[in-house]
Amino acid sequence: MNLFDTTGAAPMRLTVKPAKVPPGTVSLRASNTGTIAHEVVVLPLAAGQAIGKRPVEADNRVSEAGSLGEASHNCGEGKGGGIAPVFSSWVTLTLKPGRYEVVCNFAGHYAGGMRAELDVTQ
Ligand SMILES: [Cu+2]
Fold this sequence. Notes:
Blueprint: E1 2-7, E2 13-17, E3 20-21, E4 24-32, E5 40-45, E6 69-71, E7 76-77, E8 88-95, E9 98-103, E10 115-120
Parallel strand pairs: 1-4, 3-10, 7-8
Antiparallel strand pairs: 1-2, 4-8, 5-6, 5-9, 9-10
Copper (II) ion (CU) is lined by residues 6, 12, 38, 104, 106, 109, 114.
């Protein structure tokens, strides 16, 4: 199980613990310890692709193409409208070995620093 801490305090950040998990069923819990709403989206990372390098689009968000899943349901599982401060969301995914970038994709939050790497490896 992973614990994600997000915070809206400046600078915004997102941490993944543990940052390395075995492949298979992975339950992610995102706890918002910040002061504004956040979300967590799991995106694939191509070989050699560093985190923080996704192009930010006109709406100040990054593409969610290839998303493996999302935890943004306040006090609930899966997709929703965002996690309010103090609350959590969770999602259970089946992840293959590889590198993933876990992001908050609220406008401006990715560019603000809310991204972290999750490695799925034996
Ligand atoms: Cu955020």
